[in-house]
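Hi,

Apologies if this is the wrong queue. I'm a grad student, and the batch job for Atg6 BARA domain-containing protein from Spumella elongata produced an output file that my downstream script rejects. I'm not sure whether the problem is my script or the file. Here is the sequence I used:
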Amino acid sequence: MQSNVYLLQRESDFITSSETSFESYLEFLKSSEDNVHKTTSAQKIEKDLQAVDAEVAALNERLRAAKAAKAELQLQRSQFALQVHNSRVLQEQLNSKVNDLQNEHNEYLDQIVSMDDNMKIAVASYDRFKQINTLNDAFYVWYTGPFATINAFKLGNLVNKPVESTEINAALGQAALVLNIITSRCGIEFKQFHIVPMGSFAKILKADDRRTSYPLFIDAGSFSFFPKRNFNLALSGFMQCIHELGEYISAYDPTLSVPYKIEVSESKIADKSFVYGGDEEVWTHALKHMLANIKWIIAWYCKHGNY
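Support response: The file is valid. Your script probably expects a header line. Output copied below for reference.
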């Protein structure tokens, strides 16, 4: 770019110098014409004047061409200067755009680093939360004296330590709910019965006939001729569901099994009858074994339920 400017400047200087030389030459011709009149004949002078006129005309033509070339050079120089200006403006715009893009790139890098840090924090929190047995906390199974409890609701009844049916029903409702949650999350379907948690009024449905349901709660004010029979059918179906879930876990890991064996056909768990309406101490003990099995299932789910 600088070399082009230099060439244009040299050409302009040459044209200016030619004009100056031409004017000097005209002055010389005038001076020579005066001398010719004095020393030559009229005929020779005429001839010389014609030659001079021709040479003057040629010089005028050259001068005209030089001026036109100079004007063209000046135009090109102006155009070139405009191009240089536009190129500088474009370069400045490009530099500004590059700087903006670089700043955006740096901001994106900062965001990526921030997101990576947040992801690490989230993963660490997730790993920490995985160690928390939330289901175990939500359905706390323990015991109070001879009674097993779930979320502090007693399950069972004794002559010398009676328990209201409303509390027993609440305990059975909590037990039904936690089993329903575990099976739903694991995608397990029971073969013979379905559990329908409904607070203190849970129900057990037959798998092959959903219209047939049994109340998993003691209805002290029921006018049914078979309140105990229907409740025992529900309790037997509930035990069957616990038994199936225990078999599922053992199939998943043969080294695992529920602590207390359930024999639904005999209406027993660990050789204790779970039939309601008989020996209350035996029934209470059987339900204690039942909640122990549920506690074991909850512990298994909290450790292996996300497989």
